[in-house]
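Entry:
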Amino acid sequence: MTGHPPGPLWTGRATNRAQWVLAAAGAAALALGIELAVDAPWSSGIVPLLMAIVGCLAVGVLILYGTLAFVQVAVTIDAEAIEVRCGHIGLPRRRVRLAEVTSAEYLPHITPQQWGGWGHRWRPEKGTAIIVRRGEGLALHLGDGKVFTVTVDDAENAVRVIRTHLRALAG
């Protein structure tokens, strides 16, 4: 036990309301696949119809998961770790122990274009990121040389909390 009170030291979140438009497109593709399966005339060719149904269902599920998983992110910092949870059900999730963090950096202007889009991203020259919107965020520099970046509101205070705990761990 480190002597810190249990519970979060800092919590923050970020939301991207524009992702709901993409989620609606995914739901529409899913609905089209179901509609084709139920009401399409099977006499016009089974293989093309099955391909259309499977295609619509697959695209719908992928778009829905991809958008709903990254419509929001929640970040919690406690005395042991930083936890990042995505979407309404908290998946994907990443937990980084403070002992693994060598430094934290406030980033005032993160854009999805810097990372190749929204979502859980990886770029060899930049590391791993969870990007749900443009704007502020933080970067965690890890002991193994990797960097983990996340967009979150009030990131400057999050970095301050992390740095305070890193000094406590070092001293």
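Strands lie at 10-15, 72-77, 81-86, 93-97, 101-110, 119-123, 127-131, 135-142, 147-151.
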